[in-house]
Amino acid sequence: MSLIAKNLVSSGPRLSGAKLNFINCGNQIRTKKKLTLRSPQFPVYEKKLLLAACEPIMRRASEIPTSMQCTNVTKLEDEEPHPYIAVLADELKDFMNKSSFIGFYHLNSCADLDYRAARNTIINSGFAVRLYQNNIADLALKSTKYDPLLKFFSRSCKTVMVFGDNLNVKPLLKIEKTAPFLILMFGVYQDRVLRKDELIEISNLPNLSTLHAQLYHTLNTFGTSLTSTLDYHGNTLSNLLTRVSDA
């Protein structure tokens, strides 16, 4: 190509002074999209089906499992947990047994300062806040009545636990507005699991002391009215006899 271009430039007066642009065709490859070797394109369903049908089935050398054929099989001994993990597990078990209310929050990714501010707000409301890893929860809650709660502890998600002695749910629901990275999932009150909508219904109820006062007033009113009803005829008869004796 370079030789042809030189011949064209040097040939005749008509091409003198003209500028010719040439493209190196050997370095250009026409492709629809950029090739990515790390994420190859998966085959279509028909090709997958054909590959699955053509996959060879190798016969096993023996029907006896390999674990039974090996003559040097030894049972792995259970490793003792780290002393600090055992201390945290005992602390979690103590919290679960002594607290009357336990709240479970799902913790999304957030800044450390934001989490500390939300944690301090919950602590100022009269609750204890703890964040345990899955190995600590597994050591503390396994083979107990709280064993079904282990599904909420894993490496992929973080669960914040809130412990308290009273069922004051309003500050726990308000914390979601100021800290949206904390999501209240459910709560456990006196060994009973309460959903979030049930906790919202409980928060709308008046205070327990107010309910006790209302119940006392209702029972007292009923007793007073019952006493006056039972004594009505006796008092009427007594008044009539008094009038007759005075006459």
UniProtKB/TrEMBL annotation:
Domain of life: Eukaryota
Gene3D superfamilies: 3.30.70.1730
SUPFAM superfamilies: Ribosomal protein L10-like
Family: Belongs to the universal ribosomal protein uL10 family.
Name of the protein: Large ribosomal subunit protein uL10m
Lineage, broadest ranks: Eukaryota, Metazoa, Ecdysozoa, Arthropoda, Chelicerata
